[in-house]
Design goal:
This protein is α+β, with helices and mostly antiparallel strands. It has one domain (2-137). The protein has 4 helices and 5 strands; from the N terminus they run ααβββββαα. The mean pLDDT is 88.
Length: 147
């Protein structure tokens, strides 16, 4: 399962890197900078579609010293953070990590089951959230598999 989730994570990251500027994907035009919440949320929804019985948490972390926030996913005890490299000390995204190296900076503040988080997001964004998801799925289907 984690192999498939890692493949999906890499494909989604590549879509965000290449397509976000040319599409109407909100808050992703400077990916991975300042994109963690929505990137993690949509990744979580896509993982849920493939593995509906797996518990997926959207983790909201707060920086221990600064007024900064960060979001990532935890799936069966493994971290997925496709925007981790937006920070200077991290060189690459985290795929199926047993821990998140950013936890030295960001303390988990709140966690939400990912489909509940998406439901909350839908209440704010309405139909736009579903059209964004549909657009991401089209782009994913057009993307080549990760190497």
């Amino acid at each position: 399962m984690h192999t498939e989730i890692t493949r999906l994570s890499k494909r989604l990251r590549r879509v965000f890197e290449k397509q976000a500027i040319r599409t109407e994907l909100p808050h992703l035009c400077h990916f991975p900078k300042n994109s963690c919440q929505l990137a993690s949320l949509y990744l979580g929804v896509l993982i849920n579609r493939q593995f509906p019985t797996v518990y997926i948490e959207l983790i909201h972390g707060r920086h221990r010293l600064k007024e900064e926030n960060h979001y990532w996913l935890e799936v069966n005890g493994f971290s997925y953070d496709i925007t981790a490299d937006q920070f200077d000390d991290i060189n690459e995204p985290i795929y199926a990590g047993l821990s998140n190296p950013l936890s030295t900076y960001f303390s988990p503040y709140h966690s939400t089951e990912v489909m509940q988080a998406f439901s909350d997001y839908q209440q704010v964004e309405g139909e736009r959230s579903l059209s964004i998801l549909a657009q991401i799925e089209v782009l994913l289907n057009q993307a080549s598999p990760p190497s």
